Amino acid sequence: MSPVDLKNLTPEQLTEFLQGLGKEAFRARQLLRWIYKRGVCDLAAMTDLSKVLREDLAGRAMISNWEPETVQVSRDGTRKYLFRLADGETVETVRIPMEGGRSTLCISSQVGCAMQCSFCLTGSFGLTRNLTIAEIVNQVCAARKDGPVNNIVLMGMGEPLHNLDNVIGALKILYAPEGFDYSPRRVTLSTSGLVPQMEELGCRVRVGLAVSLTAANDALRDRLMPINRRYPLDQLMTACRNYPLKPGERITFEYILLRGVNDAVADARELVRLLHGVKAKVNLIAFNEYAGSPFQTPDDRTIRRFQTFLLDHGLVAVRRASKGRDILAACGQLKGELENCTCP
Ligand code: SF4
């Protein structure tokens, strides 16, 4: 039997695994601290584990440890990591610098994506496979070698709710006090709108929710995001209204502005109507053009007019700086094939 990658086990599963070997529960906490707090992946280096435990684990368990195959650094300091997986597939992770020396890590949950949003490069490649728990948390482990990561967003390649069990497993490691010890307030998951999985997510784990909206009526959203044909806006908005939020929390609605498609004042008016009564914050993101893309970036004046309309009608609307523009690291533009990258 091939050895178990301990990063593929949630804290509970790790405890059970060790109990199966006749070990005490506190051993799991020791292992978690070594792996995630100290970043040590060599069992022999875990000096406070007994020699017997280390010998018992050797052969039965291993701990994967990633190094990026390439790192691209943008002019604004954004770093895009490319990791090659054991089966030869690739996945991308982006570290985005924030004010005050903080940073947000955008991680991937799948190789490719099945959702086929028309403005997204990842979607145009289709889905290859889900990432394992270890492959999700290893993106965080590897990026933290470059410095602290303050916030995590599941907004990279893939639809996280299409890989729900592994994503929830990874969240448990992110939140475990002996693991990464992130507060759920620091972690956000972005979905294209898989309604049943949104409901399940809210019941199983706490995480900030972002919904990739991009259109405020069904006709346009059907065209831009095919998932809307299965779960139209009334179902999506009901799921958003029912999503469990703590006081002061809001759902983030991402709206990618596409020139001449969804950037008119009439579109802003529809958005205001759609979000009426929802605890919402709107992130406006100017489309990041790439070679061969069917859409263009709106001009600055149009974006400001759209944002002003939302603000004037009582919505929280933030214009999100498009970081990493020069290395194609914006939302929905990770593709796992840097060799085909058309950026300068
Ligand atoms: Fe998938 Fe997100 Fe791209 Fe849509 S925008 S195709 S959900 S990766």
UniProtKB/TrEMBL annotation:
Its EC number is 2.1.1.192. [4Fe-4S] cluster binds at residues 113, 117, 120. The active site is at 92 (proton acceptor), 331 (s-methylcysteine intermediate). InterPro entries: Aldolase_TIM, Methyltransferase_A, RlmN_N, RNA_MTrfase_RlmN, rRNA_lsu_MTrfase_RlmN/Cfr, rSAM, rSAM_sf. It is found in: Cytoplasm. GO terms for cellular component: cytoplasm. Pfam families: Radical_SAM, RlmN_N. GO terms for biological process: rRNA base methylation; tRNA methylation. Binds 1 [4Fe-4S] cluster. The cluster is coordinated with 3 cysteines and an exchangeable S-adenosyl-L-methionine. Gene3D superfamilies: 1.10.150.530, Aldolase class I (3.20.20.70). Keywords: 4Fe-4S, Cytoplasm, Disulfide bond, Iron, Iron-sulfur, Metal-binding, Methyltransferase, rRNA processing, S-adenosyl-L-methionine, Transferase, tRNA processing. It catalyses: adenosine(2503) in 23S rRNA + 2 reduced [2Fe-2S]-[ferredoxin] + 2 S-adenosyl-L-methionine = 2-methyladenosine(2503) in 23S rRNA + 5'-deoxyadenosine + L-methionine + 2 oxidized [2Fe-2S]-[ferredoxin] + S-adenosyl-L-homocysteine; adenosine(37) in tRNA + 2 reduced [2Fe-2S]-[ferredoxin] + 2 S-adenosyl-L-methionine = 2-methyladenosine(37) in tRNA + 5'-deoxyadenosine + L-methionine + 2 oxidized [2Fe-2S]-[ferredoxin] + S-adenosyl-L-homocysteine. S-adenosyl-L-methionine binds at residues 158-159, 190, 212-214, 288. GO terms for molecular function: 4 iron, 4 sulfur cluster binding; metal ion binding; rRNA (adenine(2503)-C2-)-methyltransferase activity; rRNA binding; tRNA (adenine(37)-C2)-methyltransferase activity; tRNA binding. Belongs to the radical SAM superfamily. RlmN family. Reaction proceeds by a ping-pong mechanism involving intermediate methylation of a conserved cysteine residue. It is an enzyme of class 2 (transferase). Residues 99-319 form the Radical SAM core domain. This is Probable dual-specificity RNA methyltransferase RlmN. It comes from Geothermobacter hydrogeniphilus. Specifically methylates position 2 of adenine 2503 in 23S rRNA and position 2 of adenine 37 in tRNAs. PANTHER family: 23S RRNA METHYLTRANSFERASE, RADICAL SAM CORE DOMAIN-CONTAINING PROTEIN. Its cofactor is [4Fe-4S] cluster.
